[in-house]
Write a structure and sequence with these properties.
The complex is a heterodimer of chains A (472) and B (462).
Chain A lengths: L1 H14 L1 H44 L4 E2 H7 L1 E4 L19 E4 L26 H17 L4 H6 L1 H7 L4 H33 L8 H29 L3 H30 L5 H14 L7 H16 L11 H37 L5 H13 L3 H28 L9 E2 L1 H6 L10 H29 L7
Helix pairs in contact in A: 1-7, 2-4, 2-7, 3-14, 4-8, 4-9, 7-8, 8-9, 8-13, 8-16, 9-12, 10-12, 12-13, 12-14, 13-16
Chain B lengths: L1 H13 L2 H52 L4 H7 L1 E4 L19 E4 L17 H6 L4 H17 L4 H6 L1 H6 L5 H31 L5 H28 L3 H30 L5 H17 L1 H11 L12 H37 L4 H13 L3 H27 L22 H29 L5 H5 L1
Antiparallel strand pairs in B: 1-2
């Protein structure tokens, strides 16, 4: 019985002109979004790879200079885009693409792609993810608002129930038929995602297939929850018109209002520090220690005394290495402690804000899905943080090698002598390994839990209202 | 008869509980939007005034120091100046790009060609992605939704229930009946939107922004009028209230959600921005090459400008750095210009195609009027670039000739003061937007009037 009802719903949906139009428009939009995103991701990846190669040449050909001066010359590294950005660009347009690595300072990623775009970007971006997050639920509303309320209005519900069809079977059959319609419609998107992984270089790096599979699961949970909510509303609404009005209000609350309200809530509970305060505090901590009671000069003087004691010497000049190089190493170590503390706090705060938004998803499922989708695509803040940390680690390694060179150069005076290409080649080019799928899954867990709870609650609610289905 | 219909409609609306709930929610959203906008504006205002105050204090100290002794220009040039974009004229109206485009830039002689970090505040990127719940959001996104919820059924429902025949048999002209009905049902929403716009201007606007506020008010009303006209037009053709609701809902989705993102994708594909990473790498390459040729460049500079050559032509580090820097600027200038050109072309395309959706025209007009859009930020960027040139022009000869600064130089020190655009410029842009929205509303209304001619009464009544 369930199968026959499902078949009937499936055919009904495809015969409905309104649905065919809406489905065609949505497929067209998804297709355009995917193709444009593909092109953009390929272009951005090529541009960043070219810049990386050019920058490596710059570094190697910087000529003869003092190694510390090379530390100030620094290196630029560019963030590679993950292949699944084809599907969900996430926060990529709003985070810096470039990090300048130099001696003494940890810099933030600069140059946000959105700064080089018009204000139209602020309307949101046309991606497959936004299509599925915002438009697919509307399509479900269109498919389902009259599924039960409409049959009741027309009087066919009374007829069907009088044939002895159990309300539960009727609703499950409808859900199955409509679910199949939707699945068929969205299949091309999944195929395209798989193509992106196979065709784009480095597609499987970071567990691409695992990510794609979980992403499919997250979207399935979201759409299943919405399907159940819509059928439940259609089951209890007195008329199809009332069901439509209720569902449209819910859609607007979920898709339009919730993201901005949740963001405000997160900002209110956990405010982002001001740039000036952040930089002042960091600068102060570099000078006076994290606790503010340990001035840098005193620490370095104590360090000099300890070094002399360790080597059994009384004067700096007697040490078998360039002491200035060792001081550089030590002050980098001290500054790094400060950076770890302050950047750790800032990034922790931003992640906590994002978690507040995700858990607000218990009220509006879109928020759970958005967070899970970005995490799995590799375009959320945790991935950006992973990249920033990797870039910072590279900075520390490269500054350390330069300072060690200076330390071992006892002939060149205060800041050592000059170094050349031989030393520059010793410093490997920055190559970034994206985090494994386990990282993405960990970041996506709150969102997936929210979606799981929504799907479970929506289906339980549907099955609970069904036995009370009234024929009139 | 017609005024009675108007009053009847108002009375009917007054008895709909759902309508009151909707109006209360809308009023709440408007209030929240203004409150949110004012918080963000206060933060930006505080940041800008602190920076401006800091600059003024520093200039005061410089004047005092110059009164006592001459100063090495290198010392003053190293300190630099912060160029600050003053708070926007109507900041509560729209946040626009002001949370993204930098509102200040530090201009230091030694780093004029460097492309540094371009952000002026710490922001959670997910928050930038989501956007702010400001007045512009309520007016562009929610205002039409609320309007449509109240006016989606102007005639379709009567046609369905058969009361339309009865009504038309009273000798009412259908178009004027529907127009009055639409007006009566949307009166409160339009009033609330207009009041909120006025409140945003009166409580958060700078002095002398009356004209901007009046244009903003007209833009808001024109946008509302467009959606009402659309509802009238849809009602003139559809057969049932449910169809009217779905058609208008679909129109909202297409015009507010889809069209802007499609336009954005199109302009970015047609005029792609050059690669920022490549610009950075190219700049580094140019500076590496120029640095290697530093001495040679300086010598050739002195050949071209013998008047600036110091006695004995001893190149000091600062002079060499400046020559290298101007060479780097010269080398990367074409790439940098390409950025501005492409962005200008993207913006020109947005301007040309903004009438694809009145939501785009409305958003552009509101951010422009607020002073938080592309144009004011572009003016700031251009003025900062000019300022950089004047900083270079002022200090370079003095550093080459090793001339000290004296009190007489104080008045000639380059100082940054942002010049607002003349009103004609923004009036021209927003006026076009406004006229376009009125024209779209007028066209829809005229089309509906033709469909609702008394001669077609029979077909209308169904």
């Amino acid at each position: 019985m369930i199968a026959s009802i499902a078949r009937k719903e499936f055919l009904d949906a495809w015969r409905d002109g309104r649905f065919r139009w809406a489905a065609a428009v949505m497929l067209l939009l998804l297709g355009v979004a995917l193709l444009l995103a593909w092109q953009q991701v390929e272009r951005t990846r090529a541009e960043r790879a070219a810049a990386t190669a050019m920058e490596r040449e710059n570094w190697l050909n910087q000529g003869e200079k003092n190694s510390h001066s090379a530390g100030h010359y620094g290196v630029y590294v560019f963030k590679p885009l993950p292949p699944l950005a084809v599907f969900d660009r996430g926060i990529e347009p709003f985070v810096g693409s470039t990090v300048f690595l130099e001696a003494h300072r940890q810099n933030q990623a600069a140059f946000l792609p959105a700064q080089d775009a018009t204000a139209m970007r602020r309307f949101g971006e046309l991606t497959a993810a936004t299509g599925l997050q915002l438009l697919a639920p509307l399509l479900i509303v269109l498919l389902t608002f009259g599924a039960l309320a409409g049959e009741r209005e027309r009087g066919t519900l009374r007829q069907v129930l009088s044939l002895g069809v159990r309300p539960r079977d009727l609703v499950l059959g409808k859900a199955l038929g409509l679910g199949a319609t939707l699945a068929l419609l969205l299949l091309p998107v999944a195929v395209f995602g798989a193509m992106a992984l196979t065709k784009l270089p480095g597609g499987d790096a970071g567990g691409g297939w695992m990510r794609l599979a979980w992403m499919g699961g997250a979207y399935a949970l979201y759409l299943a929850a919405i399907l159940a909510v819509c059928l439940a509303v259609s089951a209890v609404a007195s008329t199809a018109r009332a069901a439509l009005a209720t569902l449209l209000v819910c859609w607007a609350a979920n898709a339009v209002l919730a993201p901005r309200l949740a963001t405000d809530l997160a900002q209110r509970i956990l405010p982002t520090p001001k740039l000036l305060d952040f930089e002042t505090a960091m600068h102060k901590a570099v000078q006076e220690g994290i606790d503010g009671h340990n001035p840098r000069n005193e620490r370095l003087q104590a360090f000099a005394r300890e070094t002399l004691k360790k080597h059994g010497k009384t004067r700096i000049e007697e040490l078998p290495f360039n002491f200035d190089g060792l001081v550089m190493l030590e002050s980098e170590r001290m500054a790094n402690e400060v950076y770890d503390h302050h950047f750790g706090k800032l990034w922790g705060r931003l992640e906590a804000q994002d978690r507040v938004v995700t858990w607000t998803g218990l009220v509006a499922p879109l928020l759970g899905l958005r967070s899970a989708s970005m995490a799995l695509a590799g375009t959320d803040f945790t991935h950006h943080r992973h990249f920033s940390a990797a870039a910072e680690q590279h900075r520390r390694d490269f500054v350390r090698v330069l300072n060690e060179d200076m330390m071992n150069d006892t002939a060149g005076g205060h800041h050592g002598g000059t170094a050349g290409r031989e030393l520059w080649e010793k410093l490997p080019a920055f190559s970034y390994n994206p985090p494994p799928s386990a990282h993405a899954l960990r970041a996506a867990t709150p969102g997936l839990i929210v979606l799981g709870l929504w799907a479970a609650a929506a289906w339980v609610a549907l099955l609970r209202v069904v036995p009370r289905l009234k024929p009139h | 008869m017609t005024s009675q219909l108007f009053k009847l409609e108002l009375r009917l609306l007054a008895r709909e509980r759902a309508a009151w709930v909707l109006l209360a929610l809308f009023a709440g959203a408007l209030g929240y939007g203004i409150l949110n906008g004012s918080r963000a504006a206060a933060r930006r205002h505080e940041a800008a005034t602190t920076l401006i105050q800091g600059s003024d204090d520093f200039l005061g100290q410089v004047k005092q120091a110059l009164g006592q002794q001459a100063i090495d220009p290198k010392a003053l040039a190293s300190r630099g100046t912060v160029a600050v974009l003053p708070p926007a004229p109507l900041p509560l109206l729209a946040t626009g790009q002001s949370d993204l485009s930098p509102g200040h830039e530090s201009v230091v002689l030694w780093r004029l060609s460097a492309s540094g970090d371009t952000r002026s505040e710490l922001q959670n990127p997910s928050h930038l992605l989501t956007g702010r719940f400001d007045l512009a959001f309520v007016l562009v996104w929610l205002f039409p939704l609320v309007l449509l919820a109240l006016v989606y059924d102007l005639m379709a429902g009567d046609r369905e229930s058969g009361t339309l025949r009865l009504a038309l048999s009273q000798g009412i002209r259908p178009w004027s009946w529907m127009a009055r009905r639409a007006f009566a049902r949307s009166l409160h929403v339009l009033g609330l939107a207009a009041l909120a716009t006025l409140a945003a201007g009166l409580f958060g606007g700078s002095d002398g922004t009356g004209l901007r506020l009046m244009v903003a008010l007209a833009v808001v009303l024109a946008y509302g009028l467009f959606w009402i006209a659309l509802a009238v037009a849809v009602n003139a053709v559809v057969r049932s209230a449910a169809s009217a609701a779905t058609s208008l809902g679909a129109a909202w989705v297409l015009l507010v959600l889809v069209a802007p993102t499609l336009l954005n994708a199109t302009v970015e594909t047609l005029h792609p921005t050059p690669s920022r990473p490549e610009l950075v790498a190219a700049g580094r390459k140019a500076s590496g090459e120029a640095e290697k040729r530093g001495e040679e460049l300086l010598n050739s500079f002195y050949r071209d400008h013998p008047e600036l050559a110091p006695p004995g032509q001893q190149a000091d580090f600062a002079a060499q750095h400046l020559t290298v820097q101007s060479e780097v600027s010269r080398a990367v200038e074409p790439v940098r210009q390409k950025f501005d050109e492409q962005l200008a072309q993207q913006q020109a395309a947005v301007n040309r195609w903004r009438f694809v959706s009145p939501a785009i025209a409305m958003h552009e007009a509101l951010t422009d009027l607020a002073g938080a859009g592309y144009w004011r930020h572009r003016a700031f960027r251009e003025q900062v670039n000019d300022f950089k040139k004047s900083v270079a022009d002022f200090y370079t000869p003095k550093i080459h000739l090793r001339q000290a600064l004296t009190l007489a130089d104080f008045e000639r020190l380059p100082k940054f003061a942002f010049r607002e655009e003349p009103p004609a410029a923004w009036l021209n842009r927003t006026g076009t937007g406004l006229a376009g929205m009125f024209a779209l509303a007028g066209a829809l209304g005229a089309w509906a009037a033709v469909r609702l001619r008394p001669a077609k009464l029979g077909a209308l009544a169904g």
